[in-house]
Design brief:
heterotrimer, A mainly alpha, B mainly alpha, C mainly alpha, B: mainly alpha, 2 domains, two-stranded antiparallel sheet, 2 strands, C: mainly alpha, Helix Hairpins, 3 helices, elongated
Chain lengths: 536, 669, 99
């Protein structure tokens, strides 16, 4: 039972409001405001996690107001086990990225800091909105809104070729989003029963059913949008240019958080509402996932650009997540959610570390020009090593738990896909160790001047590493809280796929009385505590 | 205190050591990091003894205790705790691992005394001990896999310890990747176990497997996957190529990880999962065949190799083949006893080799450049010879009792195992030969210049070089330190070597057939439900087999004496005459070349293909280019109306109005 | 007399004017032809006003004349501006609105 009552619209708007104030405030204040806002948002999420009892499920802190009644759109926000850790991931990483951006040595990123932090704030609000939205139209709106500040962040503060890169990135994403918009509208309209009301609320849409033939094109449109975001092969064409041009703190967010909104959309929107199509097109999605894993890994170990190693590796990791989701098995889905969180932390840490490495290698991010950076930098080497091991899913890291659950879920019915995906694990070891060695070991590259990490770098990277280690020791922290809601989203699809219905509607472990709502049915009530307790 | 509490103490002490050294290395003066590391492992060994004593106090049936810390993964189907299992097998492994690790830690205090990465070394070494103890104490398959991977990580870190050497880093990545292949095999096996037996806990799974019929398909597949994992870790064919390369690491690393402990993890795994293997005898037989094949292969390569450490490495691969043969022939106590004695004499051999390599200024490990060190290094000579004799199964030494007992059981088991046993005898002959080949080449014959200098009291000081490639290096961080230490000059090296030498000599006492059954009795509770527990060869048969082994050993030693002392030219002429055979052995049966062709080059090619062709042509060209092309074509079409010509616009206007008028005219009419 | 003749005449004049707008290149001539089209419309309006007997058509014709006058002013002003800037007085060459 949630103890606190956290008004979600306020929580969501904190970064944006801070960004707005920062625009008006004197130049130096902008970054402190941004830091304070992201720290505040992160503190909020810690409360949310502490407030969520292990084994609980159901939406909480619900805000549900009619917004555009003629179109059936409601302003509906809520947190449940599925989005809880994604929200805290967003807040944590925004804090780390803001820290990294705020205290950079004077360079291009320092130009117009007020505008920069405004865009960061707007982006954070949009991403939080996407994770919090419980109404399809709202979700689509935030999904598209996310793109706008990134267009500016890349286009104005990026590296060489930034305009071309951001244009490609935006157009690619928008094509997918356009398809998604059309599909969302179609979904809302077509699912309205005769004489019924048009509604875009997610639980309502899940209740209404569509014939399979209608579901399939809608599924494909949503899939296009989400797979471009992830990115998955073959929709990843925007990745190399965008990853090269984006400034590193922003890139950490792009790779770690934005990609997750896409795959989150699969679990939140697609699986519960389009179960027949999910089952019918399961094999297609699994093939795309496996291809992404192998292709991303192959590219990762044949590139010399440090950013692209991590970028291609993200294609592979997101492939694993998609594999876990479309295994249509509770283990797989839980592994996918855990992997979303851990990959986010690890990817962000890697990009921040690349920034640290580049400074010490004469400004270059090419692996050929690095080398021997471990000398006189034991802490950097240690943190980089831990992050590398986590990325390749070394058992003992939370990424391993995620991949274990994903593979176990895939092995249940689709063992061949699982076995092919396992090859990706070996490839991950190859490219990550190659990356680590090329940067830290061997003799020093030309222009390499190694030194230990500075305090600011430590402040950004060390907490992320601490989160990785902590989750590695106690992954149950995340698993216990995501189980209820994640499995609930899968229920329909699994039953259609002929899976064994899981221990259905059993009271979730350890939940306090009156708190467990029927899964799949978010309470659409006035903002207050969910569950049977009446408002005092 | 209960055995489980002792188990936690055993596990957490080395972890504390690692963290302590890692965080506080700047505050630790001189060699104290080394002593701290050694003390934690030593205390761990004492805790292991506590575990042993408290376990012995319990009645037989109760000697299997699980202690759980907290729930690690708790989903609907996968339910795994962070739990350790205290039973005779794990206690046995704990004692062997922590005991030998302690001795090697003490040895390393001097050996790496002047290395710039001293504290880092001990942090890694303690982490390794923690990982290995986690592996043997784990109570379920998930924690086993975690320990398994940690051990692999520690091995990687220690192999590429001198990280500015390219040969070291490539050896490290090779070892790590092969280890990951083993990890993946274990993950798939874990799934099959979960699916088939319903739980990932050892005790639960081993109970449930009794319902499964013999040689059922899934069970055989599971056991084969476990074998893949075991062989990747233990360096058996075909996943052995990393072990000789792992000699790039400092010698104490080779002693600890690649002789005494990590590589035995595979043997431990098979012994631990014996209920599964006993119900899938096909898999066990396949394992035995591969073990024996490896045994022979490694012995032949050790015959002709010239790098001292690599000879000992191949010898390790070969001896582990014996252990594998033992446990897959369901002779658990024999296999594990050989594990124990092997740990003693192999660590001893490596320590001696470390001393010799130091005497050569650490620039060289080839026995071609060694000779006549007998007078200059008497202590090293004696201990090394004891180790070699134990390896060769010289009668009454520890190796004699352990190795030949394995063969005895194999012969007793019958069927294919008898054949394998005979092959093992043949390899034992080779073993004795190459063991003393090392002794005679290194310590006898004309003293090389370094030996002469040393006999006069001066340790050779050559410029730093990579022993494998001869490339010049420096002595900064990431390379070996400036000073070299030999056993004769430092008591912290002498003491562990002496202890191990004594153990190598008398260690056989605990398992003399017909007289003492120390190992067997102690391990009995773990293997109580084994079908083969009572199926032992008669003491008389065992003694007969031991005698045959002893005779073969003496023959091998005599042959080596003949070839290397009496008639030195014999080796060269044999090499000339059997050139193709020699070349085949010297190239390690061309495994590395095979893997390079089959895996390394194709995957690199695939990556390149992906980057150039697929990326450029397909993705950027077709999809991105195609998408933008379509958009451009569409907009071009729309743009074509905007000609800019006034008259064209006027025409359009007129035409539009006429069309509308016509429409309304017709519609209303 | 029926108004058929007037409407046919108006149509003729309209078509002549439209043909002129579409085929001539000189802006002055285009303006002239536009005037023709407008006046053809005027003629039709007045004819129908006469036929229906109320003055709505005539009033509207007056409005059309006013609009025509304003439009001619602007058009001629544009042409004078073009001439002053030495731009070619040719409708085909004024194609900067090309997309």
């Amino acid at each position: 039972m949630p103890v606190l009552d956290i008004p979600l619209p306020a929580f969501m708007a904190i970064p944006f409001v801070a960004g707005l104030i920062g625009l008006a405030a004197p130049a130096r204040a902008a970054r402190w405001l941004a830091l304070a806002a992201s720290a505040g948002a992160f503190a909020y999420t810690i409360f949310m996690i502490a407030d969520f009892a292990p084994g609980g499920e159901g939406l909480r802190y619900v805000t549900d107001e009619p917004w555009i009644p003629e179109l059936g759109i409601r302003f509906s926000l809520g947190v449940d086990g599925l989005s809880l850790f994604l929200i805290s991931l967003t807040a944590l990483l925004w804090l780390a990225a803001t820290l990294a951006a705020a205290f950079r040595p004077p360079d291009r990123l320092f130009e117009r800091p007020a505008a920069f932090f405004f865009h960061m704030g707007l982006a954070e609000t949009a991403v939080l909105g996407a994770f919090l939205a419980q109404d399809l139209a709202l979700f689509v709106a935030f999904f598209d809104l996310m793109l706008v500040p990134f267009y500016f962040l890349i286009g104005q503060w990026g590296g060489r070729e930034r305009v071309a890169a951001t244009t490609k990135f935006v157009i690619y994403t928008l094509v997918g989003s356009l398809l998604m918009l059309a599909a969302a509208v179609a979904l809302g309209v077509l699912s309205t029963p005769k004489g019924g009301e048009l509604s875009f609320a997610l639980p309502e849409l899940a209740r209404r059913s569509l014939p399979e033939g209608t579901q399939i094109p809608i599924f494909l449109a949503f899939a296009a949008a989400f797979l471009v975001k992830a990115p998955a092969f073959p929709f990843h064409g925007w990745l190399p240019d965008a990853y090269r041009a984006t400034p590193l703190p922003v890139l950490a967010l792009l790779s770690a958080v934005l990609s997750k909104v896409g795959v989150y959309g699969f679990i939140r929107v697609v699986l519960p509402i389009l179960p027949d199509a999910s089952v019918a097109l399961q094999e297609l999605m699994l093939v795309i996932a496996v291809f992404s894993i192998l292709y991303g890994s192959a590219l990762a170990f044949s590139t010399d650009d440090a950013r692209l190693v991590v970028g291609y590796s993200s294609i592979a990791q997101l492939g694993f997540i998609v594999l876990g989701i479309f295994a249509l098995d509770p283990k797989g889905a839980q592994g996918a959610v855990l992997q979303m969180v851990t990959h986010g932390v690890v990817a962000a840490a890697l990009f921040l570390i690349i920034g640290v490495l580049a400074v010490r290698a004469g400004g270059s991010e090419s692996l050929a020009r690095m080398g021997g950076l471990a000398m006189r930098a034991p802490v950097l080497a240690a943190l980089f090593l831990i992050v590398s091991f986590a990325t390749l899913a070394m058992p003992g890291s939370p990424n391993f738990v995620g991949e274990l659950l994903i593979l176990f879920g895939t092995f249940e019915d689709k063992i061949v896909y699982g076995l092919v995906a396992s090859v990706g694990i070996v490839l991950a070891a190859v490219y990550m160790i190659r990356f680590f060695q090329a940067a830290m070991h061997h003799r020093a590259g030309p222009e390499v001047a190694s030194r230990e990490m500075g305090r600011v770098d430590m402040a950004g990277i060390a907490p992320l590493v601490a989160v990785v280690v902590a989750l590695g020791i106690y992954p149950q922290l995340v698993l216990a809280r995501t189980e209820g809601d994640t499995t609930a989203r899968l229920r329909e699809a699994r039953q259609l796929a002929g899976g064994v219905p899981d221990t259905e509607a059993q009271p979730a472990r350890g939940v306090t009385p009156g708190g467990a709502t029927v899964p799949g049915e978010a309470p659409i009530r006035s903002p207050s505590r969910p569950g049977g307790e009446s408002v005092p | 205190m209960t055995p489980v509490s002792w188990g936690w103490v055993v596990l957490l002490l080395p972890l504390a050591g690692t963290i302590g050294i890692a965080l506080g290395w700047r505050a630790l003066p001189g060699r104290s990091a080394g002593w701290l590391g050694s003390v934690t492992v030593g205390l761990s060994f004492l805790a292991g003894i506590g575990m042993y004593l408290t376990l012995e106090e319990l009645p037989h049936e109760e000697r299997r205790l699980v202690g759980s810390a907290f729930r690690y993964i708790g989903t609907d189907t996968v339910d795994v705790d962070l739990a350790i299992l205290a039973d005779p097998l794990s206690t046995f492994m704990v004692l062997v691992v922590s005991g030998v690790s302690f001795l090697i830690h003490v040895y390393s205090v001097s050996y790496l005394g002047s290395d710039r990465g001293y504290a880092r070394f001990f942090a890694y070494l303690n982490f390794f001990v923690f990982s290995m103890l986690l592996l043997v104490l784990a109570a379920n398959f998930v924690l086993l896999i975690v320990g398994w991977a940690f051990v692999g990580a520690a091995s990687y870190l220690l192999i590429s310890f001198w990280y500015r050497r390219d040969t070291a880093t490539s050896a490290g990545i090779k070892a790590f990747v092969i280890n990951v292949i083993g990890d993946v095999a274990l993950v798939v096996a874990a799934f099959l176990i979960l699916n088939e037996l319903g739980t990932l806990d050892y005790l639960g799974a081993f109970e449930a497997v009794r319902e499964v019929p013999h040689d059922e398909g899934v069970l055989v597949a599971t056991c084969l996957l476990l074998l893949v994992g075991a062989f990747a870790k233990s360096g058996q064919i075909p996943l052995h190529t990393w072990l000789p390369d792992a000699m790039e690491g400092p010698t104490p690393v080779s002693a600890l990880i690649h002789a005494a402990t990590m590589v035995t993890a595979g043997v431990y795994l098979i012994a631990r999962c014996h209920p599964l293997f006993e119900r899938a005898p096909t898999a066990a037989a396949i394992g035995a065949v591969i073990g024996t094949l490896t045994l022979v292969f490694a012995a032949t390569v050790a015959l002709v190799a010239t790098d001292l450490k690599r000879i000992i490495a191949y010898s390790t691969i070969s001896q582990i083949g014996y252990m594998v043969l033992g446990v897959t022939a369901f002779a658990y106590s024999a296999g594990l006893f050989h594990l124990m004695t092997h740990a003693f004499f192999k660590a001893l051999l490596f320590m001696g080799a470390g001393s010799v390599v130091s005497a050569l200024g650490m620039t060289n490990e080839s026995i071609d450049r060694m000779g006549g060190f007998r007078k200059a290094m008497p202590f090293t000579f004696v201990t090394f010879t004891i180790g070699a004799a134990a390896l060769a199964s010289f009668p009454l030494l520890s190796g004699f009792f352990s190795k030949d007992e394995v063969i005895a059981y194999a012969l007793h088991r019958g069927g294919i195992y008898s054949v394998l046993g005979i092959v093992a005898y043949a390899a034992a002959l080779l073993t004795a030969f190459y063991a003393f080949r090392m002794v005679f080449r290194v310590f006898f014959g004309e003293p090389v210049p370094e030996a002469q200098q040393l006999a006069e009291g001066e340790l050779a000081h050559v410029g730093p070089r990579n022993p494998l490639t001869g490339e010049e290096e420096d002595t900064d961080v990431g390379f070996p330190g400036p000073e070299h230490h030999i056993a004769e000059h430092s008591w912290s090296m002498k003491a562990p070597m002496a202890v191990l030498a004594v153990l190598a000599v008398v260690g056989g006492v605990v398992a003399i057939p017909g007289l003492t059954h120390g190992v067997e009795t102690f391990l009995e509770p773990t293997f109580a439900e084994s079908e083969f527990i009572a199926d032992k060869p008669a003491p008389a048969d065992q003694l007969k087999d031991l005698a045959i082994g002893g005779v073969l050993a003496l023959l091998g030693i005599a042959a080596a004496y003949l070839v290397y002392i009496r008639r030195p030219g014999l080796a060269r002429s044999a090499r000339e005459r059997l050139r193709p055979v020699h070349s085949f052995f010297a190239h390690k049966w061309y495994f590395d070349e095979l893997y390079d062709r089959a895996f390394v080059r194709p995957s690199r090619g695939l990556g390149r293909f992906g980057r150039t062709t697929v990326e450029r042509v397909l993705v950027q060209g077709a999809i991105v280019g195609g998408a933008t092309g379509v958009v451009r074509a569409g907009t071009a079409l729309a743009r074509s109306i905007q000609t800019g010509y006034l008259r064209a616009y006027a025409l359009l206007l007129l035409a539009g109005v006429c069309a509308l008028a016509l429409y309304f005219l017709i519609a209303s009419g | 007399m029926g108004i058929a003749w007037f409407v046919v005449l108006s149509a003729f004049i309209f078509c002549i004017g439209a043909a002129g707008v579409l085929t001539r290149r000189n802006p002055l001539v285009i303006l002239l032809c536009l005037e023709l089209m407008l006046n053809a419309g005027n003629l039709a309006l007045i004819a129908f006003a006469r036929a229906s007997g109320n003055g709505d058509g005539q009033v509207f014709a007056l409005i059309v004349m006013v609009v025509a006058a304003c439009e001619v002013v602007i058009g001629l002003g544009l042409i004078v501006a073009m001439y002053r800037r030495k731009l070619p007085i040719d409708a085909d060459q004024m194609s900067e609105l090309r997309g």
